Amino acid sequence: MTDTAVPRMQDPAALLPEMAEVSASLFRVVGNRSIPRTTISLVHLRAGQIVRSTYLTVLHSSSLRKAGESEERISAVASWQDAPYFTDAERAALALVEAVWQPSARGELVSDELYAQATEHYDDKALATLVAAIGQVGFFIPFAVIGKPVPVTSLADPQWS
Asked: Please, which contacts does 66-75 make with residues 24 or more away whose CB atoms are closer than 8 Å?
């Protein structure tokens, strides 16, 4: 990152203070502990990679590092399909986020087979939480790719200065 990095838009939370409620609600829903926080961070990192958002990629890579994840696992998220570092449950979660965020020539984004694979690893509440986690990152993606906040390693760091 260079010192010349400047976001395209003003801090959306300052312009839309109601966003704080939405954001806090999403964090509460996803933080219900029905799936590991690491899985959520892997899903958020993969979404950031798919939409080519440096902001989301740096933020979620840093989050995983702070949680003690290895560089091998973090680096391999982009190529998780053939990487030996992920559990079957994490693979199902990564497959779901890819199905939602990548265009599909096959029509249906989430096939019955993929849904069945996810239900093998997640009970009803955990699967709903995983879907909410995909939606949570989806809420922030437009701000990340349109507004281009300064990449940060923590949400506590200034990103819209």
From this structure: 67/37, 67/38, 67/41, 69/38, 69/41, 74/45
